[in-house]
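To whoever is on call:

I kicked off a structure prediction for a single chain this morning and the downstream step that reads the tokens threw a length-mismatch warning. I double-checked the sequence; it's 257 residues and nothing unusual in it as far as I can see. Pasting both halves so you can look.
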Amino acid sequence: MTSTTKAPAFKQAQYEFTAHLRDPENNPAPVGIEDRRMAIYRELLYNNIEAFLGNGFPVIKSIYGETNWHRMVRDFFAHHKSRSPYFLEISQEFLAYLNNEREPQPEDPAGLTELAHYEWVELALNIAEESIDMNDIAANGDLLAGHPVLSPLAWPLAYQFPVHKMSPEFLPDVPPAQASYLVVYRNRNDEVKFMEINPVTARLLHLLQDDDCMSGQLAIEQITAEMQHPNPDIVMQGGLAALQELQQSGIILGASR
């Protein structure tokens, strides 16, 4: 028998093998393989995936409880077709599964996908390879006259649900009237932290990110005009204080030279 005639049978055996590992309840093991041996592969692969997801999404795991959590992980393992072969990107694949593939279940909390994204951000920042280059940044520069530079390891985020507060004891059914604005960042000790900010500070960071030539003063003046605030000096003082607080946390690195 030639190799070309053997290939389809070999591939079929591979498909049966991997299908069984992904979903053993609905896909029988290939004929001729001892179940004791198959069990080693079944447990090893699933346990590795489950442990990684449990470490990456601890709040979601605690919300679901053991039974529902394992049911969701098994569904992900059985049906999601990962685009990346890298183990560290499993969390990103799980996020794609939740956003695009998972059929809503009664146990799913409102705001599940936002909570998953928030938990994913922590891992993404932990492994982010961006480095901080201060060559064109004055650490003690004037944050009003110059352009305040945001750290590449600081991500301003907005969520409809208060994801930073969600837990098994706090699961709002509907989003509150006020969205949650956060900056998740990695500090100089390589610790991932978050800061809750107000909508005005969130708008300030958006303007500075959108235009890398805009000075802090011009950004605050634009916000004052958008708010139609009767006392621009108060807004300017508050904006400067926000910039200084962000700099103290390492979210803003300084002013561009």
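Update from on-call: the warning came from a stale cache, not from the record. Cleared it. Sanity check on the structure: Residues 35-56 form the longest helix (22 residues).
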